[in-house]
């Protein structure tokens, strides 16, 4: 019968332990912190979009245009996009680490996850910051009714 020696949890690090930034620890902390902030952002988003106004029937192109005319809501929606997307990607990374036993497959999954997250963050941010409901030079019949008709 052999005995296994387990280090005391509070013992100093041995020579064989890894040094540097503990990414798993920071990922864990991010999930908790972003989760708390996301609860506030999501309930604020739902309240403004569904409760404070006329409900879901009032959400249309003009509603979004009016909302994104205010810099506060641009920042709010950007924070919601970034926190939610990175939170979800980090959760998926954890699932891939837990269930993908093949190292090559795990690398492919995590690479695809990273690429898709970066692409969606870039596209979503571009949509929020470049949104113009009344683009200059657009045909008048394609513009929403609230755009100035005489705009060049």
UniProtKB/TrEMBL annotation:
<keyword id="KW-0479">Metal-binding</keyword>
<keyword id="KW-0472">Membrane</keyword>
<dbReference type="InterPro" id="IPR000701">
    <property type="entry name" value="SuccDH_FuR_B_TM-su"/>
</dbReference>
<keyword id="KW-0812">Transmembrane</keyword>
<feature type="transmembrane region" description="Helical">
    <location>
        <begin position="29"/>
        <end position="52"/>
    </location>
</feature>
<protein>
    <submittedName>
        <fullName>Succinate dehydrogenase</fullName>
    </submittedName>
</protein>
<feature type="transmembrane region" description="Helical">
    <location>
        <begin position="72"/>
        <end position="90"/>
    </location>
</feature>
<dbReference type="Pfam" id="PF01127">
    <property type="entry name" value="Sdh_cyt"/>
</dbReference>
<dbReference type="GO" id="GO:0016020">
    <property type="term" value="C:membrane"/>
</dbReference>
<dbReference type="GO" id="GO:0046872">
    <property type="term" value="F:metal ion binding"/>
</dbReference>
<keyword id="KW-1133">Transmembrane helix</keyword>
<dbReference type="InterPro" id="IPR034804">
    <property type="entry name" value="SQR/QFR_C/D"/>
</dbReference>
<keyword id="KW-0349">Heme</keyword>
<feature type="transmembrane region" description="Helical">
    <location>
        <begin position="111"/>
        <end position="131"/>
    </location>
</feature>
<keyword id="KW-0408">Iron</keyword>
């Amino acid at each position: 019968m052999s005995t296994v020696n387990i280090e005391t949890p509070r013992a100093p690090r041995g020579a064989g332990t890894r040094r540097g930034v503990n990414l798993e620890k920071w990922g864990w902390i991010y999930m908790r912190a972003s989760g708390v902030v996301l609860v506030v952002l999501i309930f604020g988003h739902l309240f403004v979009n569904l409760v404070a106004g006329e409900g879901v029937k009032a959400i249309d192109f003009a509603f979004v245009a009016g909302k994104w005319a205010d810099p506060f809501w641009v920042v709010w929606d950007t924070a919601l996009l970034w926190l939610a997307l990175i939170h979800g990607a980090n959760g998926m990374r954890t699932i891939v680490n837990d269930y993908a036993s093949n190292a090559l497959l795990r690398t492919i999954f995590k690479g695809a996850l990273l690429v898709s997250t970066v692409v969606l963050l870039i596209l979503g941010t571009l949509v929020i910051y470049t949104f113009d409901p009344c683009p200059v030079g657009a045909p008048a019949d394609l513009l929403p009714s609230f755009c100035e008709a005489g705009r060049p």
